[in-house]
Amino acid sequence: MNLELNPFQERVMMLPEEVDAFLGGGRGGGKSYGLALLALRHVEQYGTAARILYIRRTYKGLADFELIARDLFGAVYGGAARYNSAEHVWRFPNGGYLELGQLESHADYAKYQGRTFTLLLVDEAGQYPDPALLDILRSNLRGPKDVPIRAVVAANPGGVGHYWLAKRYVFKSAPWTAFLEEKSGRQWVYAPSTFAGNQFIDREQYADQLRSSCPDDAELLRAWTDGDWAIARGAYFASVLDESRNAVDPWQAVPEALGHGYGPGRLWLTYLAHDFGSSAPSVTYIVARSPGAEGPDGRFYPRGSLVLIDELATCKRDRPSEGLGWTVPILAEEIVAMCKRWGVRAQGVADDAIFAQTGHGAGSIANEFGRCGVHFRPARKADRLTGWTMMRRLLADAGKPDVPGLYISRVCEYFWSTVPYLARDQKRVEDVDSSGPDHAADAVRYGCLRRDDRIQRVRLGGV
Description:
Elements: H1 7-14, E1 20-23, H2 31-46, E2 51-56, H3 62-77, E3 82-84, E4 89-91, E5 97-102, E6 119-122, H4 132-137, E7 150-154, H5 162-170, E8 179-181, E9 186-191, H6 203-213, H7 218-226, H8 243-246, E10 247-248, E11 268-275, E12 283-289, E13 293-294, E14 300-301, E15 306-313, E16 315-316, E17 319-323, H9 328-342, E18 347-350, H10 365-371, E19 375-378, H11 384-397, E20 406-409, H12 413-418, E21 424-425, E22 428-432, H13 439-449, E23 457-458
Parallel strand pairs: 1-7, 1-9, 2-5, 2-6, 6-7, 10-20, 11-18, 15-20, 18-19
Antiparallel strand pairs: 3-4, 4-5, 8-9, 11-12, 11-23, 12-15, 13-14, 16-17, 21-22
């Protein structure tokens, strides 16, 4: 039978099977139906050798694809293709096999370990804050010599996984042009789409729905409508964070010059802002608060401005949500060393959670830090939204001559690789989606909440 495809789907079907593909367009472009078409062709070509795995982050997310699969496979095979809804498995009359699976954590991977698939389809990959789980799953791609193995990943821009998807697949080559992806060692193609090219939906009505979904977030709307991965930021800080205003060139750590001051009587306040993690990253900033003076870089910072002058982030390379597993003594040693470079005391503020007693006479994590020479106090009591509001206001006011702002040194690589891409919580749009790598943002939020004059005063030396 003849199946009608939109132009994007036709082009996807023309890609060589030996090339992996990233279907990375905006919403409504027909990516999920394209995945179903790829599964159908694979089954038709390779019969009993076809072992296909379609993955979503949650079982609830499978519902839409189940409907697509029922319509497509029902039209092609009638009742000859059977779906076991309990097992989420399609079995085709020629022996082909398609499993609809869920993968949210490393524990979920156990059900796939040791199994073999010839085609891996990942839908809504932007829901994954980092690629670690999907990279592990790729090891299941194996097959006979005459059956090409392949991975096809689909995602919309603007989600919690925006940063790693864009970095890995989008900005490597021009669309529809093969490139070598370093992690997999495979040839990939970035295949973009938009709803404007999908003649099978009511495009005017769909555009209205997208506009109503993000009325106060122009960049997210552009990502969804235009499939634009080049948006400078994700959703949450889109309107307040701008590299041209908030980023400052690195200050030079000159401990011996601190005592000489920087300008007559210009006393800066310095303190640590810390978000603790072990399996998750731990992030620590040295924060300098301006008395209303020039900094070592010759730039004037209004009174009360905060400058993040250095950063210690314990994350794995290219895995912003995974920590290095450092113990408190190891972490404290590195924090002390960072403070020594700047000639400041290892003291500041941290999340209230590290002050909870662990039981069995062990005290708290904060107590353990104290024994190792790093002294924290709780950040000012406030809910998350109060902290985000304060942080957003300081970011937005950066660059204004008469009000305090928040400035971040370019040496703070973890901040610049995560915070600009954090998404909104879809259920609570005033909050950050905490499933993303929000550890740097949390540390900065604590630093914004504690801005009193009891923190250490130092004189900052020139460069």
